[in-house]
Amino acid sequence: MESVAVGIISAPNLPADIAQDLKGELSDFLSDSIDKNVSWKIETLVDPLIGVAENTNEILGKVGNIKKENDWNYAICLTDLPLYSGKHLVMADASVKNSVAQISIPTFGCMPMRRRIKQAIIKMMAELYCQFSPENSFAADVTQLKPVRKKSNLIKKMKQSSLSLTKRVDTSAEKEHVDIRYMMKSPVLSRLRVLLGMTFANRPWTALFSFNKLTTLSFATGSYIAIFSTPWKLSIAYTPYRFIALMMLAILGTIIWVIFSHDLWEKATEKGEKRWRDLYNWTTFITLGAIVVINYCLLFFFFLIAIALFVPPELFKAWTGLDEDPSLVYYFGLVWLITSLGTLAGAIGTGVENKEKIRDITYSYRQKQRYYEIEKEEEKSEQKSY
């Protein structure tokens, strides 16, 4: 039986985790979907340089060199970079003549990311292995396609396309390494999916307890505020709109304070393109937003339990001047107010957090590399000016 070696080359962090998770099952899926008469050998490799290059040809060139060094038949790269072709975001590229392809993970959005990427790997592998004619649309039923190089027991049927929101473009006539490209159709939807995908790659839910000073100071401040009668009286006087406005002020204020106190907002430079800069900046904003919102919900839960246990109705009536027994709505309003005020004051605590620690939490691997490159560029410019 013929053996076919396929290398999955990934950038560090999330792409590497996905590649490792899929390694054990890809062989069977490729056998069922593409060719059962060959033995599929899957190997994985993590390469930091894959997560740095922003040029498509540069990435595929590096993938091709790695493929030759490891004596693989095919190589597919998983990158955490958003890739562009003109103004369009690209989900996947393939160079049939060089037997290499790349898949941009952020374009798949959030969960179920692994299932989508597994389907995309199979489809890109089919592009390389079967060498489909450019005039045929790969989004169609694969059984109707005519491969240039026929294989025995070729694909019977593929699952629903994970690239269904893309258009397949033949770029073999252009002066690029790419022969086939999948570009996203909707500019608005593609940008939203990329932002969600890049935020997911940052894994904000794992960073909650890394902001321990924010959580600790927010809880301490909220507890301190609760010993005064003024917040209690305000809680029964505020309308829902005021509660919502105060909550938004607390969340947005904390996000903005963290960004500018730790210099997380990438500024315009001669080297950095605006479209990359905007994507990274908004990813940082959404990542921090997710962390702050999770922290807010956690604080709300703690305060709700504390006030429900330690504040009897008689005490609530005495401090607020109510003539009736307080309902759950009044308790809810008090907890909401204390949580918002505590979060807003707790933002100060993030100012003393370690700068590198915050950047590790809110930046992906590529974003950190980009930040350091820009810092070096600015240092060189300053040295030249002297």
What does it look like?
It is a single chain. The chain is of the alpha/beta class. It has two domains: 2-186, Collagenase (Catalytic Domain) (3-Layer(aba) Sandwich); 203-385, no CATH class. Helices cover 53% and strands 13% of the residues. Strands 1, 2, 3, 4, 5, 6, 7 and 8 form an eight-stranded mixed β-sheet that branches. Helix 5 (212-225) crosses helix 10 and helix 6 crosses helix 10 (328-346). The longest helix has 37 residues, at 274-310. Residues 132-161 have low confidence and may be disordered.
**Terminus-to-terminus distance:** 67 Å
> Approximately how much helix is present in the residues?
40-55%
The biggest sheet amounts to: 8 strands, mixed
Fraction in beta strands: 5-15%
At CATH level 3, the topology of the largest domain is Collagenase (Catalytic Domain)
Radius of gyration over all CA atoms, rounded: 26 Å
Number of strands: 8
The number of helices is 12
Low-confidence stretches: 132-161
Tally of structural domains:
2
Quickly give the structural class: alpha/beta
> What's the CATH class label of the largest domain?
Alpha Beta
The CATH architecture name of the largest domain reads 3-Layer(aba) Sandwich
Overall geometry comes to: elongated
SSE string, helices as H and strands as E: EHEHEEEEHEEHHHHHHHHH
Overall pLDDT metric: 78
Oligomer: single chain
